[in-house]
From TrEMBL:
Residue span, Thymidylate kinase-like domain: 9-199
Database matches in CDD domains: TMPK (cd01672)
Protein name: Thymidylate kinase
Cited HAMAP family: Thymidylate_kinase
Catalytic activity, reaction form: dTMP + ATP = dTDP + ADP
InterPro entries found in the cross-reference section: P-loop_NTPase, Thymidylate_kin-like_dom, Thymidylate_kin_CS, Thymidylate_kinase
Organism of provenance: Leuconostoc kimchii
Keyword DNA repair: no
GO molecular function: dTMP kinase activity
Key words of the record: ATP-binding, Kinase, Nucleotide biosynthesis, Nucleotide-binding, Transferase
UniProt xrefs under Pfam families: Thymidylate_kin (PF02223)
Amino acid sequence: MTKPLFITFEGPEGAGKTSVLNQLVAEFQQTLGDDLISTREPGGNPISEAIRAILQPEEDNGMDDRTEALLYTAARRQHLVETVLPALKAGKVVISDRYVDSSLAYQGGGRGLGVDHIWQINQFAIDGLLPDLTIYFDLPSELGLARVKANRQGKIDRLDKESLAFHQKVRETYLELQVKFSDRIKIVDATQSLDNVVDATRQLILERMKYREV
């Protein structure tokens, strides 16, 4: 018998977390098979993906900051109900590209809406469910934005185009969250080579998986 495990990847733009996630998911699926679920926020199911399209257009669509925060929260709730909770109930390992910490950092910090306010509206959505492990990929905002401009495949959305000050506030908030939730949130230095970042992330996941056995 094994316990379910909920792991989330977090980080500012250009941190490379999605590349790391894709590489490690492919690796872990060799041993976990169907017991591993990979997903993302906002998204993971048709309703949440539809909200994602509204939230992440290439150009500014005039969305109010509070509307943005509420839409991310709504997408999160649907993602939990349709994707995450059924997988955890079945005893699976779920790895999600972003979760509630993203809202705290981007809307609470970056948008200046207040981490406490964003935390409050998300409590209704997540109903107390926090990850067993959150891996935060950290790097200076200037480097992250330079990576986005140089390497991003496909569209660069409206969040990518926000000011440097916005992205610096996002990073500051992530770092504050890591201090507050240090037992759950672990930092990986994303300025390293991709191979080194993958190695460090793999070790954190393997260490947490030791506690899955019951």
